[in-house]
Batch of 2 targets.
Target 1
Amino acid sequence: MDLSTSMTIAASGMRAQSSRMRVIAENIANANSTSPTPDGDPYRRQVATINSEFDQQLGATVVEAGKPVEDQSDFRLQYDPGNPAADKQGYVKLPNVNPLVEIMDMREAQRSYEADLTVMEASKTMLSRTVDLLNK
Amino acid sequence: MTIAPSAAAAAYNATAKIATQSGAGAAGESGFGDFLSNAIKDSIGTLKQGETMAAAQAAGQADMVSVVNAVNNAEITLDTVVAIRDKVISAYQSIMQMPI
């Protein structure tokens, strides 16, 4: 039935957005993670990928969270000679995470999730109101 | 005017024959009974899936969204089955209360 299919599609969107949220949480939590050694790299920012996929069994295009990809942009450098991760010049490599970008990504994931929730709620209401017709 | 009991029995037999013939023809394609039992089998499957997902969630093996989806489907299916059952029972009662 089309309405329960749309509920399943909305559920796939919600799943994808929650996996995106997990990647964002990792980025925010690791925004200050440095390497334990001076020559190592700090935490590298992950970018969540979302793909559309045709579900044969369902007969509809659903959303799937892809594998997170590493952000290859440069690390931030900070002068901090006392840090164990500092190089000979006293610079520490910090993760390429920009909290502002992460917060905006988080907002977007939140709103997309809410949109999927609304679709689910509307489909459910449509279905149950139709069933209610039998009760009259 | 009088009606012989044997004539009435013959008329009843003729009608019954027609009824069984048409009934058999319909059952060959897809009878109402088949339709009903298929629908009920489907809904039992949906309900079972909802239960399985809820149990998996309790064991920490399923994500919340799948559980909500499965339970939602089960709820709507159960509502539909109950509504149809009520309708069928009320139809049956209307027939039983029919003055003969």
Target 2
Amino acid sequence: MNASSVVTAAQRVAQWRSAALPWISLAALAALPFLLPSPNFVRLLFTTFLWVTASIAWNLLGGFAGQVSFGFVFYGMGAYATALLMNAGVHPIPAFMASAVTAALVSLIVGVPAFRLRGPYFAIATIGISEAVRVVMTNLRFTGGASGYRIVEHRPFRQLEHYYSALLLAAIAFAISALLVHAKFGLGLQAIRQDEDAAADLGVNPYTYKLAVHALAAALTGIAGGVFARYAAFIHPGGVFGFHTSVHILLMPVIGGIGTVWGPVLGGFVFGIVEEEIVASFPQVHLLIYGTLLILIILFEPGGILGGLGKLFRRFRGKR
Amino acid sequence: MENANVPILQVERITRYFGGLAAVKDVSFEVRKGQIFGFIGPNGAGKTTLFSMIAGALKPSSGRIRSWGRDITGVRPFKLIKLGIARTHQVVRPFREMTVLENVQVAAHFGKNAITSTAAARERAVKVLRSAGIDQLANYPASILSVGHQKRLEIARALATDPDLLLCDEICGGLTHSETLEMLQLLRRIRDHGTTVMYVEHDVKAITSVCDRIMVLNYGRKLAEGTPEHIQNDQAVIEAYLGTRATGKS
């Protein structure tokens, strides 16, 4: 009786803490530009939020549902959709929404055939699609092909506006992921990852669920691409559609802890903050570094940072 | 849809070939609402093939399967659930990274009634876990359960989908004697709560003690069908299971 009430009290504290952590983090990040008003620092955090968004989105599909994608072309799709619409005079917010819709539609084109097959075929198909899209965009005349596309916004540039739109987007992505994980949709996805046949035997339709989460992940990533394009004011296929972009998006949740709520956030922050430094220091071999990192994580700590921290925490507690 | 004169499950001349070999040949039977209907047979008799066809996991080469008169031949498992037909697996397949409660919650969410609310699905899951006798394990990861408890979880998951017809595949395999008795008791309780049960097992004792009606398969064909007493005294069944006597005397 006494012991059980102690447990529930401790659980309540833990629950309260896990509910408060996102809000505290959000408030701190919202205040940060005023505490450290350096344009370069604000820009670094801005791109980090976009990486975090893409990381969370990839994890919905790859982490929760277990469908590994090597071709997140949605970042580029969103970037180009926003760019074209903004140059046509559309306000950024509807342009971002259009990016989400465009990316979700493209996700169906990939998913409808690929999800009919079991096993690694979806992953293989995504590689093919991402290369095909990059080649098409490199040769597409009206977007400037390989030389890229410039966005002209007839509004004064305010960095904080960009900062907060990226932060809001990351917060929305996090909220979706955190609310999803214990809800019907999230449980269905996780059931599919753990045993697709058993899930189907309990009434889950694996095909439509995979399509749905693919579209959701694409929409979030598409908006991130749009927000990026608006800030960068210049995009080119080798950047937003580059294979390395897809690899980055996959790498972050793996670094942080795949299939968890906080893992992709952690991975996104770590990656976002060190990425530029790594590219600047090792311009020739930075992809090699990522590849090595990926192999090391998979070999020694498949749970990523979060899994490693959990183990350390348990060991520390066990010793005492 | 329910009509007392129409069987909840009706199998008509079902046949399945693997290559040139008929694993199941021209088998017909009916299951009535409220029964525990069992089928037995020696190894290789075609039990699993027949079961898989009814559960929608395998397409028959010919023949029809109906539920309440509606053709369900080749209907996929996730659709059968919505029609009130659920199955368990011989080799248990829990979602290992989920808790016991979450395992059953998935079933409640996606079952016949498709509960959307998390709280309602949890409530239903707890209720089902209690009736399966494993509610004390609700918050443990499914991967740490013993075989006996995993079999119960397998049944609890199927029950949480709120089936009218429960297909059970060798749920007593690998269980101790007392666990088997408890499991059979659970099957009776499920039937008494209004769920019709179709039960496949090769343990004759388990089947005859719990079933209202039994069908015997041998070499893919129906050998006999009737009440447990009838089956136990059927000469063809005794021969299939025990072989013919070497001498004429008993």
